[in-house]
Amino acid sequence: MCKDMSPLEKAIQFHGHICPGLLMGVRAAEIALNYLQFDSDQDEELGAIVESDTCGVDAIQAILGCTFGKGNLYFKDYGKMVYTVFNRQNGRAIRIAQKYDALEHPIMERYRHLKGRELLAPEEEIELEDVLAQVFEWIMSQPTERLFHWREVEMPQLNKARILKSIQCHNCGEGVMQTHAILTEEGLLCPECHLNWRGDNHVRG
Fold it and tell me: Assign residue 9 a region: left if phi > 0, alpha if psi is -120 to 50, beta otherwise?
């Protein structure tokens, strides 16, 4: 990804299209950048804890360089538009939470209505493009205080990514990280095979 791109361009290229959720993630990433005073060149010194698996997380990955592959993106399945971003280099962290009514606006209501339809008439397709453009302008022009709450928090105690050994599942023969293998009467199993093995044993019982 080109380093000369703006944060917004990076996020759109990574995500593949523009949508309200992605734009909110861009705004959250900008807060983190400004508040903690870092850039993505610090690589794994940066980290983020995200509490949903929605579009905004792609902006966090693209702009802040926090990804599952690098081991500096942590997922908590809370279903909340909340991002805790931290800098291991200076020990600072910020928790950014989308306000409950952040996206309450007539243009957003129209956008949701059109996106919620399974089939759109040609004129509605054209309208949707225009509405999305208005949504873009509205979200990107709002004061940050209108969209988010944020506060500095204690540095999360999380380990950096480790290279883990893989072992072979006794049942399927596929490799599985040793931290995820489960010892059973049949031998070491991957989580998927363990679930099936438990189900089979339950039926037999």
Answer: alpha
